[in-house]
Design brief:
Elements (H helix, E strand, L loop, with lengths): L6 E6 L4 E8 L3 E9 L1 H5 L6 H23 L8 E7 L3 H18 L3 E5 H12 L7 E6 L4 E8 L2 E7 L5 H11 L6 H9 L24 H17 L5 H27 L3 E5 L6 H14 L2 E3 L3 H4 L3 H13 L18
Parallel strand pairs: 1-4, 4-5, 6-9, 9-10
Antiparallel strand pairs: 1-2, 2-3, 6-7, 7-8
Helix pairs in contact: 2-3, 4-11, 5-6, 5-7, 5-8, 6-8, 8-9
Length: 339
């Protein structure tokens, strides 16, 4: 406890960011330190799990020390420890989990395991103090694309999910074949600003009538087929037009499905979450659609769209308030579902 606030120390190591945050009463960021490995993995065109784990091991203690120093808190001020337990890369998850367990055991403070996707949703609570459940959330990341009915702080119903590639995964794969580099999402977004979003007609896959599921594998294949066909014809490829047209197709599907979910559930609040929530076109078109439908849209800042410990600390706090405390036998679950 510090200044009358419950202090959560949170750790996030699900992929290639080592992050530690200290949060006051769940929604106030006292510090949020993120050590990214993007430059390390760029040479490979994607995250190499073993390399990511090794760097987490090197980074976790210095990052934790920085977070404590920046927050002005001491270990004795910490009331609980929150840590990501999945989904993610198992080796990476175990580094954060082992660290959180050690501190919780040594200080005899509660330990709370957090689902990474609940963390992404919770990022919206940090910047939108007025936001409370129930609401809809569109979670779009490298590994997940889901429409979730957030019924309570710890109560969720998945209304729709991807049946194949997640949107972020499709961005990465298309960016790779276009030679734009890694990470694919920001590269596609940047390249698209110089292209024509109507230059190439890529199919929007909506699946069955009224379905809230997603499918981006066919769209990704459509881009590959277009590139191969143009090369066989000896035609020059306008990379910016391909990027812009591909991005337009992905975003239109995401926005359409989100509006369908709102109509089906009657929810008038929608929270965008996940790494792809940083995409400028998605934020723009979703805001326009929400304004037209009378829906209030909530978006985290760009920093809180990425993997970070602040969002994990927020989620951990609300799990703690509802008595959802874990023991030291807590384990990592790389394919953890949001329940």
């Amino acid at each position: 406890m510090k200044d009358g606030k419950h202090i959560t120390l949170a750790i996030e190591t699900s992929c290639d960011e080592t992050s530690v945050a200290l949060m006051g009463d769940g929604r106030e960021i006292l510090s949020n330190v993120i050590s990214s490995q993007i430059k390390i993995h760029q040479v490979f065109g994607g995250v190499v799990p073993e390399i990511a784990s090794r760097h987490h091991l090197d980074n976790i203690n210095p990052v934790l020390d920085q977070a404590l120093a920046r927050s002005g808190c001491k270990l004795e001020d910490v009331d609980l420890y929150g840590v990501t337990i999945g989904p993610g890369l198992v080796g990476a998850l175990l580094i954060g989990l082992a660290t959180a367990k050690a501190y919780a055991f040594a200080t005899e403070k509660p330990l709370i395991g957090v689902n990474h996707m609940q963390g992404h949703i919770s990022a919206n609570y940090i910047e939108n103090k007025e936001l409370t459940p129930p609401f809809l959330s569109l979670v779009v990341s490298g590994g997940h694309t889901e429409l979730i009915d957030v019924k309570g702080y710890n109560e969720f119903e998945i209304l729709g999910r991807t049946r194949d590639d997640a949107a972020g995964e499709a961005f990465d794969k298309v960016a790779r074949v276009l030679g734009l580099g890694y990470p694919g999402g920001p590269m596609i977004d940047k390249s698209s600003k110089e292209g024509n979003p109507s230059g190439i007609e890529f199919k929007r896959v909506m699946l069955e009538r009224d379905s809230l599921d997603f499918s981006f594998s066919g769209l990704k294949t459509g881009v590959l087929n277009y590139l191969n066909t143009e090369k066989l014809k000896g035609q020059a490829i306008n990379v910016e037009d391909v990027a812009a047209s591909f991005q337009q197709a992905v975003v239109e599907v995401l926005v359409t499905k989100a509006m369908m979910a709102s109509e089906q559930t009657g929810r008038d609040k929608l929270a965008l979450a996940g790494g792809v929530a940083a995409n400028s076109l998605l934020r723009k078109l979703l805001k326009e659609a929400c304004d037209k439908a009378g829906i209030t849209l909530y978006c985290p800042s760009i920093e809180l769209c990425t993997d970070n410990a602040a969002m994990i600390g927020c989620a951990a706090y609300y799990r703690y308030l509802y008595g959802q405390v874990d023991g030291l036998d807590l384990d990592a679950h790389p394919s953890l579902e949001l329940l």
